[in-house]
Amino acid sequence: MNGLMRNCSPSRAVLMLLGIIIALLSLGNQGYALSEENYPTWLRALDSLSSERMLADVTTLSSPSFNGRQTGTTNDADSAKWIADRFLASGLSLACVRYDPTMPILSCRRSGTGLMTTAVRVSNIAPNPVLRISTAGDSLTQQLGTDYLPILDSPSAEVRGPIVFVGYGIVDATQGIDDYAGIDIANAIVLFLRGTPTHYKGTVSHADKVRFARQKGALGYLTATGPVLSPYEIRRGVTGVPSAFYGLSPQSETLPGAWISTTLAEQILAASDQAQPSRLHELQEKLNRSPATQSINTARYAFLDWHTLLEDGVLINVLAFLPGNDPQKAQEILVIGAHRDHFGRQAGLLFPGADDNASGTAVILEVARAMAKAGATSTRTVLFVSFSGEEQGLVGSRLYLERALWPIGSTKAMINIDHAGIG
Q1: Which pLDDT tens digit goes with each residue over 189-225?
Q2: In sequence order, what DSSP letters do the residues of 18-29 get, joined into one string?
Q3: In this predicted model, what pLDDT tens digit does every residue of 69-108 receive, in sequence order?
Q4: Which secondary-structure segment (H or E) carries 157?
Q5: Cα separation of 336 and 383, whole Å?
Q6: Cα–Cα distance between 318 and 339 in angstroms, integer?
Q7: What is 127-306's CATH topology?
Q8: Among 331, 381, 377, which Cα is nearest to 32's?
Q9: Residue 333: partners with Cβ closer than 8 Å, 6 or more residues away
Q10: CATH number of 10-119+317-379+387-416
């Protein structure tokens, strides 16, 4: 989800992007893109930019009519067609896509449908999932979306077990970390913090943590953002509220799981009379200072209950281009891309995806309009790509690499726009 234009408004992003495009198109061309002949054309392109038009595109893409644009759904297919129509209306040509990866690249250069597709599995959490936290004498009331949200590709769940806090949930002998040392989690629900401790020099993914928990015998897991935010989390504006998220665990290594709020995690760890409300804060600070295990049995139990629907779907990338006008340089490519997929409707909640990433999609549409309508030409070809499958692990991007329309070596630069609306 990270992108080049992370900290500016869409209108500023477009201005910056056009400046970068001009610079990239001029490389090796004796300043062709900035020549006296082309200068008025690029000024017209800049003058034609419309923040109102971009806002309208964001509003349309994030409206209920596209239902959150989840990869592989008919809603995302509708958004792909909408993007293709906008590219055509702007004056771009839709690319001819090789459906057979073994087809020679040079055999497909005429205009086409612009659609690059592949089969995917679509995971949906059915409405009204349940997470209940309790002790022998009481029960905490949770609100879906505020206190908890199932991991969106979690398997179906109907499990109950004691909650065991396992720090960051990391097992890494090379770093001297084993958050499961000295504690039995068989048939338990583990609770681990997102991210890594500040002293950790290795790399660990969410899927790695789930695999560790499964190997140790856990029935399921809860994960939460700790109260001590890392500099990266602060820059990202991370809060303690759970977010929509794909765990990306292989089917053979996954467990039922949910992202819970920092507040709920604090309540779980403050369950006993002796525990302080700041217990989670203190535990996280210890974990950040030392690899020593801080895992503990809590006085709480968790009950996870929901149904996950799995269906076959089709991922769709949309590709359109402005051809270069130099027979020698036209085979050199500048790619401008943004993913348009989001999380769809999950657990009965709609995730519209205005910032992530209708905003980035609106930016590339506006750049395409500005360049095409102004007649801004270049020696190199400019390829615009609306990717799907980003939230599921860059699936659409990997698909393009497998079926690139031009040899990857001839791609001179790629500009990716994500979260352009966060201001």
Answers
A1: 999 999 999 999 999 999 999 999 999 999 999 999 9
A2: HHHHHHHHHTTT
A3: 999 999 999 999 999 999 999 999 999 886 655 554 444 4
A4: strand 157-165
A5: 6
A6: 10
A7: Glucose Oxidase; domain 1 (3.50.30)
A8: 377
A9: 380, 381, 382, 383, 406, 410, 411, 412
A10: 3.40.630.10
